[in-house]
Write a structure and sequence with these properties.
The complex is a heterodimer of chains A (164) and B (787). With 164 residues, chain A is an alpha+beta fold. Helix content of chain A is 38%, strand content 14%. Chain A has five helices and five strands. Chain A has a five-stranded mixed sheet with strand order 2-1-5-3-4, with helices on one face. In chain A, helix 2 packs across helix 5 and helix 3 packs across helix 5. The longest helix of chain A has 25 residues. Chain A is globular, with a radius of gyration of 16 Å. Chain B is globular. The termini of chain B are far apart. Chain B is of the alpha+beta class and 787 residues long. In chain B, helix 14 packs across helix 15. In chain B, a hairpin with a 5-residue loop joins strand 16 and strand 17. Classes of the chains: A alpha+beta (164), B alpha+beta (787). Chains A and B meet through helix 1, helix 2, helix 3, helix 4 and helix 5 of A and helix 1 and helix 16 of B.
């Protein structure tokens, strides 16, 4: 079947099998391999991408379900050459080790901060609780998201000062 | 960089840039022109004779390019492969299947989905056989014989092994005031890296060169083994272990899927990718633990521990595929005397076959030290309860004293360095131990169940000295080579391989420190056998102890070469130069000095060099460690248990680790964090169990539960630094310390919480159901779903 999907701002039209999973569409068809596959059962979250404005586990979403919609992956997280605050937070706080869960973690974290700019540690843990990391014990992931929140709050405050 | 500056410290990781942008290269990210896709057909039965394998319908599938069966492999003498424990394992079954999920056939097709479709078209007729999945019944007369492929194998017995002095231990026990015994199971677990195992094999039919991109923690060892197994000339094999999505020991062995991908590429003349799915990973690749242990501890009435005894039944599954140094079939379990000053100890381990997946030494266990630490730390807590002593006080009374190091233990280990009481005191201080005990007492008055669990562990990591330690005859040493380019930038090749440990950063820091460079000036190359020196790879926390030492030694060789060239530049005798941390300078005249970058350029210039001095700074080395390194730590877990539901909530976890000199403390802390989560997972959630027909009950992440951000508390870390006396910079390994040390602290905390119910022990994992049963006085065997 024919689908048209906008991924990270670029439109793609492809002929796909009806059963093709979104994760395989992104990785194998579009060669956007930043999103990872980890479990098949929606437990690990290595495959998290945004479908329109919502994080989804792309191992249990059909590519056909993304027809006419927008997808955002880790490759679309930075702003040109400038890393997103979440990405910088993960680097500053050693929020990643093997890097396999990192794209999904960052996309969920970005969604959280967009909706709740100053989350508590407990809220961050709750938001990330549908995703597994086998390396970090989550501590530094929480700190990374907190770093990004602080950084963005400071940037907002500076913008406010400039406006005055 | 002057002598006062250090390249050590919490340097941000070089690796992160690619992972943060989603442009890392994991095995499944590899796409080659013409690449085909493989899939493995697996046995649904745990034990059955194969009557026939009919591939006719699958062959007719329009997108299938090759089908490999055991018969096809047998014709090439590839149906069986050696394991890392001197056993053999079926690549594809020819005679019988021996565990559920065993590899039976391999399909090569044009795409991922078609390969899977074709598996459904293969018709295998099985004749079911009786199954044994209970290790305690594997040696019963009449138990089903699993390994009838081995000549003169009368039963399911694999090995008996022992360490220590049985007579001296008997004498100590006979004279002791108090003896406490406890049976305990360290249940089967699985490392479950988030990236499953996989490979892309590309056999070039013209050059005969085989390139395998592979999820391997030990690419050089794999190359040699592939050569020995497949008969390919070793110089025509290139193993590339690219970015690896976690290993934890799961990616040490060679798996049948890798070999099938290679054979698939040979048969089709095209590259073949095979990546297992999660169920395949959990059901067929290297499991961990599965130790049925009986512990005995002897002490005086006033709490002096005298001796320790252990008898272990080790379930190795259907093939003995555990990965440990050859001389040690039970790994380093015999360091089970832990951190205490004992008079005598003795352990004996019996290995058995069962109809379960092969493996055994995987999952950050430091070659079975995980099991040994768990045993001794549970026994010490049992003893404390028996004596009515505080478990912290009992430990403090019996810990090895600083002046006893180097200390030779009752089973022969020589512990290199330590200040154990200091680490325990720090942990108690960080936890606020007396206050916690007061809180616990108050809560018990109110009928609330709070527990405080301690664990003190000693690890032995960095295998190893080649006179004692080899894997399949390969001494456990590691190489390093270091090239310094004319502008003073350096490239370090190492034989170990990162799966998240940050080698590209830490190893650059090691070299930078020795040469007065910035870590940014040192590129670390790893994971490609054509570009790196030979060595045994990353597992058992051996990278920093062995390969890190090699990196330092090779950098010092470079520095000595530089001294000779600097002497020529400065027109001084080499003996008159001194290294100030950044430059070779003339002793007494520090104005006269040259940096490594200046010397590197001169080395390649037209400068006249003295006879015998070569015009470069490059060097190589192979490091043979004189001993293991012995990191240690003191852990304290605070748990709240709901006796109605059996739910355990971890409120706090304090971890003090001493791993010697910390090259990058940020990375060290990250390693500890991750290990703590593993330990919590094993203690509370993770188990691979089986039903009586041998069905694996942990075959997906819906059944095999891993800790999330909600089960993990915010870790509270502390550090002491007792340098390793024999490592060139005083560092010890740390990658597995927390996984090894933490499960006992969690279990001790839960048992401590439930002491009012008379509970003395409960086996992991302490799921709500298992805790509830334990409270009711009806403990369960968590490894079996057998009534």
């Amino acid at each position: 079947m024919q689908i048209t999907v906008t991924v990270n701002g670029t439109g793609y039209a492809r002929e796909v099998e009806a059963r093709l999973l979104l994760i395989h569409f992104l990785r194998d068809e579009l060669r956007l391999t930043g999103s990872h596959w980890g479990c098949d059962t929606s437990n690990c979250g290595a495959c998290v991408v945004w479908l329109d404005e919502t994080p989804v586990k792309s191992c249990t979403v059909l590519a056909a379900m993304a027809d006419g919609r927008r997808v955002r992956t880790v490759e679309g997280l930075a702003h040109g050459d400038e890393l997103d605050a979440v990405q910088r937070g993960f680097a500053e706080c050693h929020g990643l080790q093997c890097g396999f869960c990192t794209p999904g973690m960052m996309l969920t974290a970005r969604w959280l901060l967009d909706h709740r700019p100053d989350p508590s540690a407990a809220e961050i843990r709750e938001a990330l609780s549908g995703q597994l990391c086998r390396c970090t014990g989550y501590e530094n992931i929480v700190r990374s998201v907190q770093w990004a929140a602080r950084h963005e709050a400071a940037a907002r405050a500076a913008d406010g000062d400039d406006a005055r | 960089m002057s002598a006062t500056n250090s390249a050590y410290g919490p340097v941000r990781r070089k690796e992160d840039a690619r992972f943060l942008r989603g442009v890392g290269t994991f095995v499944d990210d590899i796409a080659l022109p013409g690449m085909l896709h493989g899939a493995v057909l697996r046995s649904p039965l745990a034990h059955a004779r194969i009557v026939s394998v009919d591939t006719t319908a699958a062959e007719a599938h329009p997108k299938v390019r090759a089908i490999i069966t055991g018969e096809v492999l047998e014709q090439r003498k590839l149906a069986w492969m050696p394991t890392l424990s001197q056993d053999v394992q079926a690549v594809l079954a020819t005679d019988k299947v021996r565990f559920q999920g065993q590899e039976v056939a391999f399909v090569v097709a044009e795409d991922r989905y078609s390969a899977r479709d074709a598996l459904e078209l293969i018709d295998v007729a099985y004749d079911p056989l009786p199954v044994v999945v209970d290790a305690t019944r594997a040696l019963d007369p009449g138990a089903p014989l699993i390994r009838d492929d081995i000549a003169e194998q009368p039963g399911n017995h694999i090995f008996d092994w022992s360490a220590g002095d049985p007579a001296a231990t008997d004498a100590v026990f006979a004279a002791a005031d108090v003896v406490v015994t406890q049976d305990m199971l360290y249940p089967r677990s699985h490392p479950a890296p988030l990236e499953t195992c996989g490979a892309v094999a590309d056999m070039d039919p013209v050059s005969g060169k085989l390139t395998v991109w592979c999820t391997s923690q030990a690419p050089h060892a794999h190359r040699t083994l592939y050569s020995l197994v497949a008969g390919l000339p070793e110089h025509k094999i290139r193993i590339i272990s690219p970015d690896i999505g976690g290993g934890f020991g799961n990616k040490v062995p060679i798996y049948p899927g890798y070999l099938c991908a290679i054979v698939g590429s040979m048969l089709t003349g095209q590259p073949v990718k095979w990546v297992e799915d999660r169920s395949e990973n959990l059901m067929s690749t290297a499991f961990a633990r599965d130790y049925h242990m009986h512990g005995e501890i002897a002490a005086t009435r006033d709490g002096r521990i005298l001796g320790l005894r252990a008898r272990v039944l080790a379930d190795h599954g259907a093939f003995n595929g555990s990965a440990q140094p050859t001389k040690f079939p039970a790994g380093f379990f015999h360091i089970f005397t832990g951190s205490y000053d004992l008079q005598a100890a003795y352990c004996e381990v019996t290995g058995v076959y069962t109809n379960k997946a092969p493996g055994g030494v995987a999952y950050s266990c430091s070659f079975r030290i995980a099991e040994g630490v768990y045993l001794v730390e549970r026994m010490v807590d049992r003893l404390a309860a028996e004596l009515g002593m505080d478990p912290a006080g009992l430990r403090m009374k019996n810990l090895l004293r600083p002046e006893q190091f180097p200390y030779t233990g009752p089973t022969g280990w020589e512990y290199d360095s330590g200040n154990y009481p200091q680490a325990l005191r720090l942990a108690l201080d960080l936890a606020g131990y007396p206050e916690l005990r007061r809180e616990q007492a108050e809560k018990r008055e109110r009928g609330e169940y709070m527990g405080i669990g301690l664990s003190f562990f000693t690890e032995g990591v960095g295998a190893g000295p080649r006179k004692h330690m080899d894997i399949l005859g390969l001494g456990m040493n590691d190489g390093a080579d270091l090239r310094v380019y004319p502008t003073g930038k350096a490239v370090l090749g190492i034989s170990v391989q990162t799966q998240g440990q940050g080698h590209e950063t830490t190893f650059a820091q090691l070299v930078a420190q020795e040469l007065g460079l910035s870590p940014d000036d040192v590129e670390v190359v790893h994971g490609d056998t054509d570009r790196t020196p030979f060595g045994l790879g990353t597992y058992g926390s051996r990278s920093t102890p062995v390969s890190g030492a090699a990196a330092v030694v090779v950098a010092r060789k470079v520095r000595e070469r530089a001294r000779l060239i600097a002497a020529a530049m400065l027109e001084a005798a080499p003996g008159d130069l001194e290294w100030d941390g950044g430059r070779w300078q003339v002793r007494g005249d520090p104005e006269q000095g040259r940096t490594i970058a200046e010397i590197a350029m001169a080395a390649r210039s037209s400068l006249e060099l003295p006879d015998g001095v070569e015009g470069h700074l490059d060097a190589e080395t192979v490091y043979n460690p004189p001993n293991l390194t012995f990191p240690y730590g003191a852990y304290i877990c605070v748990a709240d248990v709901d006796p109605v539901t059996g739910e355990v909530t971890l409120r706090r976890f304090v971890a003090v680790d001493d791993c010697g000199v910390r090259i990058n403390p940020m990375i060290v802390e990250g390693q500890v964090h991750g290990g703590l989560a593993d330990g919590v997972g094993m203690a509370l959630m993770q188990v691979i169990s089986y039903d009586e027909e041998g069905n694996c009950l942990g075959g997906s992440f819906m059944d095999y539960l891993l800790p999330t951000s909600l089960e993990c508390p915010s870790w509270e870390l502390g550090a002491t630094v007792t340098p390793c006396p024999h490592h060139p910079v005083g560092a010890k390994g740390v990658g597995e310390s927390a996984t090894v040390g933490s499960p006992a602290a969690v279990v001790n905390a839960v048992v401590d919480a439930l002491r009012p119910f008379g509970l003395q022990h409960a086996d992991m994992p302490l799921t709500p159901a298992n805790v509830w049963c334990a409270i009711q006085g009806r403990p369960v065997r968590p490894d079996l779903a057998i009534k």
